[in-house]
């Protein structure tokens, strides 16, 4: 009889623990769902306001604080970029991927810029024909939450580079996972500040997907591609690489597969990982992963 009572007690305890764990998981998921719903409502309201305004004014007069007028395409001399980066020295590197290396540069007028030098091995000779055209399109993309493309440099067979606005406070990956940040930086990331970042990213995606003449799919949205300016405002970077690779249909709505554009494990939508075809929904999947990562401070791969 004593053994039976012990068994019943253990069973009751295990059941209670399992129930408690289930409640905790449900509560966490519920909180996340409410947060995502809040972000969605804000975006819907924001878009509704923009649609109302567009009926009253011409698009060119409706750029307000969220948009800025497009600058003319500037072609930089490759030698100027070499001088700005110490001939693309290792010490100037601030980011790298299989497709490109990003350098911090200081131009002759003392302006700091980020210079994204494309890896020519990943870009076929055919892309020479479309590089200038796509660089011109990227220069026309003007939204407060996109990193501005200031110009380009091109020398056939030697260099393809984009000159970008420089962001003083690094990227979101460093904010989430760098344990060496000082307390003042860590403590500033309250829930409301994180939600502000989510709204900024979502606003930039909304512009890429539906604010231009055709949809632009990012394909590589992840924390390291979310940059922060001196005021800690979030800006989406590295957009348009797929278009430079020529991976788009005429309407820009669907991208085809490419060995060069691999995506990053943990942020890829399942249909991109397995079918190698994506639509704008792939970026929405990546956005959801970033939200989870910033809230939990855990990488999607568990590493």
Automatic annotation (TrEMBL):
Question: Which parts of the sequence belong to the Protein kinase domain?
Answer: 88-303
Q: Which reaction does it catalyse?
A: L-seryl-[protein] + ATP = O-phospho-L-seryl-[protein] + ADP + H(+); L-threonyl-[protein] + ATP = O-phospho-L-threonyl-[protein] + ADP + H(+)
Q: Which residue ranges does UniProt annotate as crossing the membrane? A: 26-45
Q: Name one Pfam family in it.
A: Pkinase
Which top-level enzyme class is recorded in the Swiss-Prot or TrEMBL entry?
transferase
Stated EC number for the protein is 2.7.11.1
**Listed GO molecular functions?**
ATP binding; protein serine/threonine kinase activity
List, alphabetically, the InterPro entries matched: Kinase-like_dom_sf (IPR011009), Prot_kinase_dom (IPR000719), Ser_Thr_Kinases_DiverseReg (IPR051420)
What keywords appear on the UniProt entry?
ATP-binding, Kinase, Membrane, Nucleotide-binding, Serine/threonine-protein kinase, Transferase, Transmembrane, Transmembrane helix
> Entry's PROSITE patterns?
PROTEIN_KINASE_DOM (PS50011)
Q: What is this protein called?
A: non-specific serine/threonine protein kinase
Q: Which organism is it from?
A: Glycine max
